[in-house]
Amino acid sequence: MAVIAFVAVLVFGPDRLPELAKQAAQFLKQLKKMANAARDDLRNELGPEFSDLELRDLDPRAIVRKHIMEAMEDDDDEPLRSGLRPLGDGEVPPYDVEAT
What we know:
Blueprint: H1 2-46, H2 60-77
């Protein structure tokens, strides 16, 4: 951060730097206001069942992570299939030379 601040002082000069910082802060406020308005519009269009919708809930990584975690929780409840058992400490999984 200090390097960026130093370069900004060199490029823009110490006289213009406060003005540029004020403009950047206004831009960020406006961007946040636009994001909140988009979220509110989306909530209104989707209806009351999505009233707690957050924009980060629409992140594909979060959606995939959520479904994987749910699947893993559901998988813990299922019994082990036909003779399969977890490996013990230090136990090596079987290796088939012909299969590889």
